[in-house]
Known about the structure:
Bound molecules: adenosine monophosphate
Number of helices: 13
Radius of gyration: 20 Å
Distance between the termini: 42 Å
Largest sheet: 9 strands, antiparallel
Mean pLDDT: 96
Amino acid sequence: VTLVTVLGGGQLGWMLGLAGLPLGVRFRFVDPSGEATARAVGELVVAPLDDADAARHAASGAAVVTYEWEGVPATTAEALVTAGHRVSPPVGALAVAQDRLAEKECLRRLGIPTARFTAVDDRAGLDAAVAHLGLPAVLKTRRGGYDGKGQRVLRDPADVDSAWAALGGVPLILEAFVAFRRELSIVAVRDRDGAVACWPVVENEHRDAILRVTRAPAPGTDHAIQAQAEACIRPLLDELDYVGVACVELFDTGDALLANEIAPRVHNSGHWSIEGAETSQFENHLRAVLGLPLGSTAARGPAAMVNWIGTHPDRAALLAVPGAHLHDYAKVARPGRKLGHVTVTAHDPATLDERLARVREIVSDCS
Ligand code: AMP
């Protein structure tokens, strides 16, 4: 059997496992929690992810080590490479994605459009950055932020002090505020030979900075938008000599697409692909990191994905919606926690809209 070791054992690991089992792949997950979701689909090694010895131990016998969380310490990934393990995606991708400044600089170097930005290292630097970019602007910690944590919007000069008080003391980045029309993302896979395939660009709705709904393909997208979105990820994957699935989150301003964030892993906005595409992001990630041929990323038809956060919805009500596919991560409910998602599919956009409206209604009680 082919063993894959996955650093991180959350729902992304669980879905990698579900996709890999039929391919004859078996899994070993490393996660600090003994309750990690992915333990349902493989062996679980309980250890913190900065424990390089535990990671090395968990990697023994694996064809490849991959990760389902971009917070995996680069030191752990490097220790595995040094010990002779194949690690995909490459460690360099982790380093870029873990630092918002390195991320934006990499995008800029590759000619991928982003919001204007500037590094902020101290209080005087924040004033200079505000003078340079103007307001409104978004102040973000360079490291450790996700789902909107570690950032503040500065709307007028009075916000500067409070934002500094909240975030100051660690390296920061200030970005010009983008008055986007909508948020999109593009998920792509690159294989060991450098071939890249992209799924259709999708539209994402966030609430409290957590993804709630993805529509695939993004309504109203044409070849030009798909090509623009692909131009925001293809050069990046080539530059990083990337192997596996990655996502770039985009702002659609109506005039342009601006890249906001890179995720060097399978992504929540690609979950629809399990039922909605010829090959899911999870299966293609495994195919890529194992050196197997990629599958088609074409959509089978329109699809939409709805997350539930904090509390569980009425499962029977969801399953009564035609075309609804349930993914319950079997986690203990906690406020703000992603507990599951449902993907709805349909043969035509009008039917999808109707089914999505029903699912939204059922899930709306979940905060
Ligand atoms: P991030 O942590 O960078 O993914 O940002 C979380 C959310 O904050 C994004 O999905 C946007 O809704 C919003 N946001 C982040 N950066 C900006 C920006 N420069 N301008 C406007 N909104 C932003």
